[in-house]
# Entry
Amino acid sequence: MTRPAQPLRRERRPDQRPQELLEAALDVFARKGYRAARLDDVAEAAGVTKGAIYHYFDTKEELLLGVVEHFQDVAFGRVEDVLRDKTLPPSARIGLLVRRMFSNPDRTRGELFLVLLRDVAHEMPRVHHRWLRTGPMRLWGLIASLVEEGKEAGEFRADADSEVGARLLVSGLMLQLIWQQHAPHLREITIDEERVVNAAVELFLASLRSVG
Amino acid sequence: MTRPAQPLRRERRPDQRPQELLEAALDVFARKGYRAARLDDVAEAAGVTKGAIYHYFDTKEELLLGVVEHFQDVAFGRVEDVLRDKTLPPSARIGLLVRRMFSNPDRTRGELFLVLLRDVAHEMPRVHHRWLRTGPMRLWGLIASLVEEGKEAGEFRADADSEVGARLLVSGLMLQLIWQQHAPHLREITIDEERVVNAAVELFLASLRSVG
DNA sequence: AGATTAACATACTCACGGGTATGTTACTGC
DNA sequence: GCAGTAACATACCCGTGAGTATGTTAATCT
# Structure
């Protein structure tokens, strides 16, 4: 296009810029995958150039780490009230927790773990572990402790394996939703997301209540 | 090491070679990830050089496709007898099917979907869809039809959502086992694999039997 | 209003690895 | 036993993209 060598926009916003970069990075990573995503793409999506990124982040990996921490905090922040609301029985709080975490079409949800399941896992164990700890493990830990509460309250049977159950609930939903979102043109795999989430919760709770 | 320019071993085995290459490729892909795996690595693992690979496969993607087809066939081949054994009740056949597919420490199991979950998913949708169809979807389809059998036989409640349940069972187990195998030094995530598989099956069956 | 630094842009380097072009040697048929 | 081809090995090409070095301009302080 024979650019008229118009020097690029020069707006200086050192306080908004980092978060803008994180959001742009999430977009691009989610669309292209971490490795395939070029830093030039991220920069373009954020309306800047690569130099700006390297002004705030030392390396591509550090940028990804920033994305993880930022959006993980956002996601769990929107669920704190449910955890503290002791007026609801544990089963209801589990339902709310899972539903809020998984049936959420905005960016704080799926794109992130999608990226992390992909190219990150093996090539950057440090980042992957950090994410595992602050994400999935944290979530199924919360669920497991709610189940324990439910046991003490007599709502669930006492011999249930709360730990493994919570793990399966979380990982099952994650992978299903990843696939749904990832292959929307694959007819056979596309089911209404709400149906999946509801069915998962029902299945989980039913197994906790059943008489063994 | 200043190689003495010893020309590499020249053994010609055009019939074993392709499978050897597939096995070497699976190893390297599983260890390094698809993108990070160099074709030189695969060649070295197979005891040949890159030229040999390109003699049998047109491209890196084609090699991966070969890996998928080969090992998928092996895995499902070892389960056919269970499916055809009509003497066992569906619940028992589900248990056997899942256990055989997931509690299997050899290479036909985890390494493959681990690779495909990672870098393949987004960057090569053709390969990913092929795998989804011939792997997970096939498996949960089998389970769902067993559940239908169980409903007709009166073993399971008729209003259960067999489709979604089977999906969650498969994807939950897959992701759990991936993580286990992927972060064996992460204490908090490591549980006995048999316990996970058994608990998953029990949870699944319990929800099918419970009185809603 | 000039100096200084922060917040960017621009231009370049350089390793890496998929693919290719070409050489070399083991078989196979005749 | 000798072409001819298949089954490899070797050497090279070349795009790609992370990281860097350096230039440039806006804000800030005095």
